[in-house]
């Protein structure tokens, strides 16, 4: 049995069209399946939890939507039984699909899932935050604090988002909001603590992004060396006294090139604690975790079996 969790609203409604095409193929191939269509944020998380709690024998769960939908599914999974995950991208950013080099054609993706040749045991990350009660949120692709998260927050609440997505220029949305946030961005003093031992201080941190996969924000390759099978987080810190110097850094990341600017530093670790002197926006896979001063992130190695 295949369980599909579909966000019909991803990419301004493209998810619904993609799902209609997939359903035709599924019906024609007489595959046994059940579909769960989300109606609001949080539904994908709930469906994933309900499908996997109670240690069922084995389930194949397939997400149809964007990175936000994948994030919700991952966050809802109960890893007690045998779970196999498949993904059919239908979002705006599609950073997971970009990293896994999944076919752009959803029907080809579906056929790969129905006749799987390769599985990968993938890492995922967990972000923890909060003062009293600590909240934990899993992430598949990346998490971050600062300007990159402010862009995600702004996109989530942007009025023009739907229009841009309908026009299939989701990447342009990220770029335009990115430019706005770059103008507004203020750096913070702060520090990171790698694996509980190595402390590194920063005077002008604009953002810190922590990756399982190399891309975020619809194609910015902030962590070119990220490897989703190595049990490690790849960290990119943007720290510069001169905001203008960030522009070539962002352009290079968008072109898929590693930044050579000395304000950009890269680290690898299993866990990281981040402290910022002032509260900054936080995201996981583009979903908001509000504003925080302190967050902790760790990598859970080779945990999610995925058809690729
Ligand atoms: N039926 C729905 N209506 C409105 N929002 C939804 C619905 N289902 C899920 N959501 C929310 O939509 C948001 C974005 O979804 P998703 O990531 O699938 O698409 P996207 O934003 O177009 O793609 P990407 O994240 O790759 O840019 C998520 O925050 C999710 O919680």
From TrEMBL:
Domain DAGKc: 1-130
PROSITE patterns attached to this UniProt entry: DAGK (PS50146)
Keywords noted in UniProt: ATP-binding, Kinase, Lipid biosynthesis, Lipid metabolism, Nucleotide-binding, Phospholipid biosynthesis, Phospholipid metabolism, Transferase
SMART domains: DAGKc
Lipid biosynthesis listed as a keyword: yes
UniProt keyword annotation of Lipid metabolism present: yes
UniProt signal peptide: none
GO molecular function annotation: ATP binding; kinase activity
A Pfam cross-reference name: YegS_C
Gene Ontology biological process terms, A to Z: phospholipid biosynthetic process
Taxonomy, superkingdom: Bacteria
Cofactor(s) needed: Mg(2+)
Family: Belongs to the diacylglycerol/lipid kinase family.
Protein name: Diacylglycerol kinase
